[in-house]
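Record filed here:
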Amino acid sequence: PRAAFDALMDLELPQGMLRPSYAVFSAIRDRDPRLAAALCVELARSTDPRRNEFGQREFSGVMRQLRKTDGFEKALAWAQQQSDPAMTAQLVTALTKELLDDEQDADAVKAFAALRDSTASSDPDFVKDLAAAMVRVDPVGARSWVLTLPSGAARGAGVLAMAKQISEKQSAPQALAWLQGCGSQPDFDGAYQELAKGWPASDPAGKF
């Protein structure tokens, strides 16, 4: 399969013809997840735009398959063993996203904690999903983490997701108390507005 994949990547095809590389790569990934993961990293390091794009696009798939076959701890360890810190960050971020999609909150938080730096922290959608998981695992730690993010859309999305989780799982007053502990920042306005809209009618005096 590896030889077939390499041949397909190098083959000159007529314009508009689809390259069946993904089918071959999927076969490699299903048969030998570690080989597929190594190949994915090799491609992502390539200076050839087509190979580089293919490798980066497959990060999520190879991390999902590694976690399925080897378990979370070994998949995370493999990603951390990469010599390039930027590559490690991309792989661990991909693993974190897969865990969030599967609602594996504790492991997602643990994977993200292994990252020293990640551009994903500026992605509002990623921060929103991670924040919701984090507040379910450790509300106090979640607040400390979200306050370390730079002010902006991503931090606002994270605080909003956390406040909504606490309101749904506990109560609106508890969510308000948690939010007030974060302080008052312009990018927290969305969270305050969301709590105000969902405030229980049975407690009009407590509404802010």
